[in-house]
Every structure is written in structure tokens, then in C-alpha cells.
Write a structure and sequence with these properties.
2 copies of one chain form a homodimer. Chain A has 362 residues and is α/β, with parallel strands linked by helices. Helices cover 46% and strands 10% of the residues of chain A. Chain A is globular and about 70 Å long.
């Protein structure tokens, strides 16, 4: 299915990356469940936190150590479709925000600091020369995509390069973060993510397209028309690489690489908003074994986001009407994962604490 | 309405506490809204986080400083109604869990540590002699309530003493925490909270009573019958002090005091599960000016919890099917409040970062 010549991280091809990915097995699920039910609380009373704890234990072991090395990867790229008036913001904002990220002034920077995470900013395809920008990782594949409404956004080799670049960002990082957040920036990229979502889930564009960063009803109708023009060229294909080529984005393909490399390295990863979640579903379609490493941070106000989460079978931790992206939602999920790992690691058992169990009478 | 002789914190009476509570005004709401919209993000794109940031700014100022001094107050008390078989756990567990809290082995201890919060454990009415227990605050009013199914759970002066004791726990703490979580422990206290919720909201007991820590259908029917017997004695009265006397709990009355003293001191406070939220609504009915200091952490699986949150008009941050109490949900909300304060405090503005605003075209 995938081209053997695709290079990822400079050394291994994409198929190699996929073949090397194993399901997490750092703990025995039945043993973790017994441990969970031995702790001084009614069984199941921590609700979804218990499932998060179990999943972390499968990845990192039981007890799960404190996951102190944590990073949000913010991948940036521009989109040719912006010339169709699909965004409330001018295209230049992608580059301007990259400067804001490395200066520490963006929302993700503030929230990442508050949860003890580093922000790694990567230029996958910004339509500006950012070589002068210190603190930015330079992995530019090309200056923005082509207009997905008119032609394929990317050539197949550009998709491969972007996936490889994203994978390399993770694989070449020393030490590798224990907890990875997926973030993105790209004016116009909710249009691309909407087309990807429609293609992957079969949902009609009008069920997927939302306001993005804030277009009005005219903008939504324009977005929907552009999405339809991109999706129709796919002729129903659900091939993730072909979808990326027709309607994708460089930062989205890069995030696919981040997820593949993160899964290969056995790291817990957290989705963010609509766009990052579209990348996560593409990655899982390429490599199903990546799924158990993914946690869903939130469900945004974008209508397509819920479709993606359902397709992944992931339950979001939050529903706060956030619709910013950048990794802001992913960062916010880190303390919840911390809490899940902490209770599993640190709680006393009924036996060790001398606490009585249920009477069985009631 | 309230007896003038009620002493709170040893020095001031309850009416004095209420009269001394002011609406938060550490920032001008219109100025905070302008500041929010000047930050480098589409307006409103951080969703509910923006409302949390605004509310924190009203309490603590804009910029809101890092709220590093934080505590979860876990108030404990026993319930006479446990003899009716309304709980899955024996009454002794209340005392056993107090030992577990001070030893640091309970869920709230682990989660509080993970969010940098202290756990303050207070005996308001445990049916055991805990004077030997170091690390516990001793504020016992009596050893458990009477059986609310048969007679008033508390005498009016016991209610006043418990409120005063809870208020004193906060007022006498130096330095006073900047962020306060409400927690509780008391086998049988979902029965009391169900009766309080029915009385305060007018909802029928069958719409309120849930599984608590895990009773089966027989237990639910028994709980419902006990709640009905307690509520009927109130004859429709919505007087919060009378409700506390007929069907309340010592730890619940104590939490009412915590909320009143916290509001008086101008502190942000976070609700926890069903029982703590019942206390919060009682406190707001006594002192409406306390409401702006309250944040809702989560909505639990207990059916009455939603009714209470709706009556308070508070939107919960989480819905994770948690049903443990202890302050576990409150602790989990602290990092979200941190993130809200952090983005408002630290983000660059469009002007300072040189980022273009919306085109207005789309």
C-alpha cells in the first residue's frame, strides 16, 4: 500500500516504522484492574480516570512513573485554499504566530508552562522565510500547499517528506518526551481537516464544516463548496496517503509522522482540536497499532471533531467549546493524565490501610 | 432569619459573616473582556476557559497571580440513617478513611499532591474517637447525626455549631489558601444530600436518589423511602438552616461554613461531587453573594448533582462519571483554573506580538 521508498527520520521507511510499532504491554490489564479494585475507593468510583490510569499503565507500567518530560509539538504550514476566502484571518498570520510561539506569547505557550510542558515549534510548510527565527525547527517541505479546491494540495512525495519530517522531529529528540501533545497552526487548515474528515468518515461536507476560527455564514458556505470540490476528486477513496495528497496539509502530514514515531517509541500522545485529531485518525488508518497510545483531550465546537473522535473510539476528557488548536487542549489534558497515574501509583489498598470493604448487604 | 447568637469562628455571628461578604470586584469585567479579545487568538476561541479566566480576574485581579497556596478541605461526619441500610459500606469506614487521609493513602491525597494542593482533614462528626489521630483537625460537634428517616438529624444549635466550625477551619488558617476545594467523607451522606437536594430544588426524591458509592436497586429503593420520610417533615420549607437540621449532616453543615468563610475572605472555591455541591447550594441560599466565588469542578453520575449545578447556574468543567467525593473532582479542577489564569496573565496581544487581526472579509 505504501511506497517502499518513503524515508522517515532519514533512516527507516514508513513501512518499517509501521511494522516496528507494537501494542502497549507494559502491564497486564487484568492485574491492573485487580489493583484498581483493591484501592481504597468504591470500584469504578473514579469513573473515566480509571480507564485513563489503566491505559497509561499499559504504556508506561504499573506503577506509572511521573511523566515529567512532556512536550507539545506545534507544527505549522500554510494552505493554498486560503485564497478562496475560507478563513477569518489573513494567511500571514501563520508566520506571525510562529514568531509568537517561539517568543512564548501564544495561548499554548502559557498553558504549556502552567502544566510543565515544553513547546516545540516546527515549520513544515509556512509560506514565509523563517530561517532567521531562533527556537524554530526548520523542516519546511514547501511554502504552503496548492489550492485543494482546484488541484491536489500535495504531490505524493511531498506527503511522504512531510510525514518523514514529522516523524524525525520526534525520533531525533533526545531525550524523547514521555508525554506528547499534538498541536498545529495553519490559516485555512480547518478547510483541509474538514475535507479529510469527510473523506475518512464518509460524512457529507455540510455535516463536517464549521466556523473554524470564526468565519460567518458566507464563509461556511464557501468552505463547504471548497471541501466538496476537493473530496469529489477522491472518488470515495479512503487511502490516507491519497487523502493527504488531494486535500491535506503539510502540518497535518507532519503530525501523522509525529503520531507514527510516537507510537513506534511507545509514548502516550494526546490529541488536540479538530485538525490534530484528523491527523491522529489518518495515522491510525495507516498504523492501527498507534491507537492505544492516543488519548483524546477535548471535543471542540467544530462539528467534524466529534465524527473523528467517534471514528477513533476515543472519549474526550473535556468539552469546553475550545476551538483554537495550537495544542492548547492537549496541554490541558496533561494534569488529568498526571492525576490518573498518581492515584494508581500512590493510593493505599483496603488491606494496607485497614479500611473495611462493602458489606454486601445493601 | 438567622439566630443572632450563632457564633462563627468564635468571634462573629453568622449574620455578620453574611453581611461582610462582598461581590468580587478585583477587576472591571468590561476591561477584562477587552483584554481577552486583545490576546493573540480568535475571540472566544478558548471557550469556557475564557469565562473561568474572567471570573478568576474578578476575584483575584487581572493579571491573576499564580494561585500557589491551595487546599482541599475534607470534612467528615457520620450519619444516623446508615442503620437503615442505605450504603454499600459499613459506618466504620468514615473513621477508617480519616486515618487513610492523614496517612496520605486516599484518592484525594494522590490527586491533591499531583496538583500541588494540601489536604486538610477535619472531623466534624465522626462516630469514633479520633483524638489520637495526628494531622486531623478536631472540630467534632457530635458523634454522627440522628437518623433522618425517624427524626430531625440535628438540633438547630448543632447546625449552627457545625457551620461555625467549618467557617473557623478556613478563617483560622494562616496563611489562608488562595484556592479552596470542597471535600467530604461520610458513609450515608448521599442519602442526606439527596434529601437536601429534593428540599432545595423541589425535585421528587426518585429524581434525585442514585447509587451513591454503589448500592443496588434494593438499596436505592430503601434510600428513596428514607429521603421521602425526611423531606416530608419539611413541609415544603426551603429554609437552609431548617433543611440542615431535618435532613443534613455535620460535614455538610461544616462545608456550608467553609463556603461562607471562603466567600467572606474573597477566595475562589471549587465544588466537588454531589454532597459538596449540596453544601454549596445551601451556602448560596444563605448568602447569595457567595456564588461568584464558586466554580463547579465536575458533574457526577449521581442524578441529583445536575439539579444542584443547574440551581447554582454553574457549568461543570468535567463530566468523567466520577462518584467518589473526598474533593477528588475539586482537586482536578485546579490545573484548569491555573491554565485559565495563565493564558490571561501571560499571552501576548495582537499589537505586542505584531500579529494581524481578522480580515473582516470572510
Amino acid at each position: 500500500m505504501l511506497a517502499d521508498t518513503t524515508t522517515v527520520g532519514g533512516t527507516s521507511d514508513l513501512n518499517e516504522l509501521i511494522r516496528g510499532t507494537r501494542l502497549p504491554h507494559a502491564a497486564d490489564p487484568a492485574a491492573v484492574r485487580r489493583h484498581l479494585d483493591s484501592l481504597t475507593k468504591p470500584p469504578g468510583s473514579l469513573g473515566y480516570l480509571e480507564e485513563l490510569a489503566l491505559r497509561l499503565a499499559l504504556i508506561h507500567g504499573d506503577p506509572t512513573p511521573p511523566l515529567q518530560r512532556r512536550a507539545i509539538f506545534v507544527l505549522a504550514g500554510d494552505h493554498g485554499v486560503t485564497r478562496q476566502g475560507v478563513s477569518a484571518y489573513p494567511r500571514e498570520v501563520t508566520a506571525e504566530m510562529c514568531r509568537n510561539y517561539v517568543a512564548g506569547g501564544a495561548a499554548v505557550c502559557a498553558i504549556a508552562r502552567s502544566v510543565g510542558a515544553e513547546v516545540v515549534v516546527v515549520d513544515l510548510g509556512v509560506d514565509a522565510d523563517l530561517l532567521d527565527l531562533p527556537g524554530l525547527e526548520h523542516r519546511k517541505v514547501r511554502r504552503g500547499t496548492r489550492d485543494l479546491a482546484e488541484e491536489p494540495a500535495l504531490m505524493p512525495d511531498e506527503v511522504s517528506q512531510a510525514i518523514a519530517a514529522g516523524a524525525a522531529v520526534v525520533a531525533e529528540r533526545h531525550p524523547l518526551p514521555q508525554l506528547i501533545g499534538l498541536g498545529e497552526m495553519g490559516i485555512g487548515n480547518t478547510t483541509s481537516a474538514s475535507a479529510i474528515t469527510s473523506a475518512l468518515t464518509g460524512a457529507a461536507p455540510k455535516a463536517v464544516v464549521g466556523r473554524g476560527t470564526g468565519v460567518g455564514m458566507d464563509g461556511i458556505l464557501r468552505k463547504r463548496a471548497m471541501v466538496e470540490r476537493g473530496v469529489v476528486r477522491l472518488g470515495g477513496s479512503q487511502d490516507p496517503l491519497r487523502i493527504l495528497a488531494e486535500v491535506g496539509g503539510l502540518e497535518i502530514a507532519g503530525l501523522v509522522g509525529v503520531v507514527l514515531a510516537g507510537a513506534r517509541a511507545g509514548r502516550a500522545m494526546v490529541t488536540d482540536g479538530f485538525i490534530a485529531t484528523a491527523a491522529a485518525l489518518l495515522a491510525v488508518r495507516i498504523c492501527p497499532a498507534a491507537l492505544p497510545y492516543l488519548f483524546a483531550s477535548h471535543c471542540s465546537a467544530e462539528p467534524g471533531h466529534r465524527l473523528l473522535l467517534d471514528a477513533l473510539g476515543l472519549r474526550p476528557i473535556y468539552q469546553l467549546d475550545m476551538r483554537l488548536g495550537e495544542g492548547t487542549g492537549a496541554a490541558l489534558a496533561f494534569p488529568v493524565l498526571d492525576a490518573a497515574a498518581a492515584f494508581l501509583r500512590e493510593m493505599a489498598t483496603f488491606e494496607s490501610a485497614g479500611v473495611s470493604g462493602p458489606t454486601g448487604a445493601a
